[in-house]
Design brief:
2 strands, globular, mainly alpha, 8 helices
Length: 186
C-alpha cells in the first residue's frame, strides 16, 4: 500500500472568508488546531525537556514550577506547539538538528498532552491545598511517563488512546490512521 496518510486538521479548515462560505473573522478551529502528523522526534525532545523541568521542580520543591509545567501542557493541548516555549524549542531548534523526521498521528499525542495537563494541574492544586506529598508523588508519576516517551519512545498516553479507541470509547474517525492498520503498511 502507499505511505501513511494523515490529513492535517488545518487542511479541513477554511482559511479565507470565501472558502468559509463568506464568513469573515477569526476561525477558531485554526486557533485550536493540533498538527497531524507530528514529528516523533520533536515530541520526544519536548518530553525530555518536561522531564528536566519537572525533575528540577521536584528536587528543589519550587511550587511555581508545577504551575509552569501545567501551563506548558495546557498550551500544547490547546494550541499545539505554536505557543509552548518547550515545544517551540523542540520543533524549531532541536529536532531539525537531528536532520530526520518520523511522522506519527497527532491525535494520540494531543491526548497524551491532555493527560499531562490534567496530572500537572492536579499536582499544582494538591500543593496549593497543602497536600505536598500527594503533589510530589503525582509529579514523580508524570516524570516517569515523560521519561518513557523521551528515552524509550513509549508514549503511555498514546497507548491509553489506542486502548480507548479499540474499546470504542474514542471514535474511529478521530484518528483514522490509528484505527486502520492498512494505512500503516509501508
Amino acid at each position: 500500500m502507499g505511505k501513511l496518510q494523515i490529513d492535517s486538521p488545518a487542511d479541513a479548515v477554511p482559511t479565507t472568508a470565501a472558502a468559509a462560505g463568506g464568513r469573515t473573522g477569526l476561525d477558531w478551529r485554526t486557533v485550536f488546531a493540533f498538527p497531524n502528523p507530528v514529528n516523533e522526534y520533536a515530541a520526544r525532545i519536548t518530553a525530555a525537556l518536561v522531564v528536566v523541568v519537572a525533575a528540577a521542580t521536584l528536587l528543589t520543591g519550587w511550587g511555581w514550577g508545577l504551575a509552569l509545567i501545567a501551563a506548558g501542557f495546557w498550551l500544547r493541548v490547546l494550541f499545539g506547539p505554536r505557543i509552548s516555549p518547550l515545544a517551540q524549542l523542540s520543533v524549531k531548534v532541536l529536532a531539525p538538528r537531528l536532520g530526520r523526521a518520523k511522522l506519527v498521528p497527532g491525535p494520540p499525542k494531543r491526548f497524551a498532552q491532555g493527560i499531562g495537563a490534567g496530572m500537572s494541574t492536579a499536582a499544582a492544586l494538591l500543593l496549593a491545598a497543602g497536600l505536598a506529598p500527594a503533589a510530589w508523588t503525582l509529579l514523580a508519576v508524570l516524570i516517569v511517563a515523560a521519561s518513557l516517551e523521551a528515552f524509550a519512545g513509549f508514549c503511555l498516553g498514546c497507548a491509553i488512546f489506542g486502548f480507548l479507541q479499540r474499546r470504542g470509547l474514542i471514535p474511529a474517525d478521530i484518528c483514522e490512521a490509528c484505527n486502520n492498520i492498512s494505512l500503516k503498511r509501508p
